[in-house]
Design brief:
Layout: H1 4-18, H2 24-32, H3 58-64, H4 80-93, H5 103-112, E1 119-125, E2 134-140, E3 144-149, E4 154-158, E5 162-168, E6 171-176, H6 184-187
Antiparallel strand pairs: 1-2, 1-5, 2-3, 3-4, 5-6
Length: 200
């Protein structure tokens, strides 16, 4: 076993290595009180950046034809079950569409609702050729609706300068496309004003 002098020398050497910034007098002062707190310099941990999963670009989506509907699929009858699902979705969203329901409450929920599967009609338009188009909304983009008509024709109708109407359980709602130029995902978080200017 080591003697007391060897142990003392070892402790002194160990403390000098552990606390190089401290003077010998200060170390001896600490030893007399028999309480030594060794300095510890923690290494800074470098945070690893999380890599975000990148989706397809707009060009890649066009090349892959992700949003194109094949001609053989462009049939009104195929999408009638989708319309029935949409009606059930709206009834659940509006708690049954009861006769005593307040119209502005239903209107507010319809403005934020997903319209894929809804039957809409173009009631007003600056372009007369769009007026009267009725069909099921198959796709909604920021600026256009893709609608399949009863004649099995796929129509691309711009939102700008068009007014659309949709009817469910006797409740008719009007959509002013010029104020509706948002993607469906963005629209659900937007706050719509109850009163606004109509530019059509």
């Amino acid at each position: 076993p080591q003697g007391s002098e060897e142990a003392k020398a070892f402790v002194n050497a160990f403390l000098k290595r552990s606390m190089p910034k401290m003077k010998d007098e200060a170390i001896q002062d600490m030893l007399t009180r028999k309480a030594v707190v060794l300095e510890h310099y923690a290494k800074k941990k470098t945070k690893q950046k999380r890599k975000k999963t990148k989706g397809f670009t707009a060009k890649q989506r066009r090349e892959m034809r992700l949003f194109e509907i094949e001609p053989e699929q462009q049939r009104y009858a195929i999408f009638l079950p989708l319309h029935e699902l949409w009606k059930q979705y709206i009834r659940d969203l509006c708690h049954g569409l009861k006769p005593d329901a307040q119209p502005h409450m239903i209107q507010g929920k319809l403005l934020k609702a997903d319209l894929h599967g809804a039957i809409v009609t173009v009631t007003k338009s600056k372009c007369p050729s769009y007026v009267g188009i009725t069909g099921i909304i198959l796709q909604e983009f920021k600026h256009v609706f893709k609608i399949i008509t009863k004649e099995d024709k796929l129509k691309v109708v711009p939102k700008l300068n068009n007014v659309f109407s949709l009817e469910i359980d006797g409740f008719i709602s009007y959509i002013y496309g010029s104020k509706f130029q948002l993607r469906a995902s963005e629209r659900s978080a937007k706050k719509f004003k109850l009163k606004g200017t109509i530019d059509l």
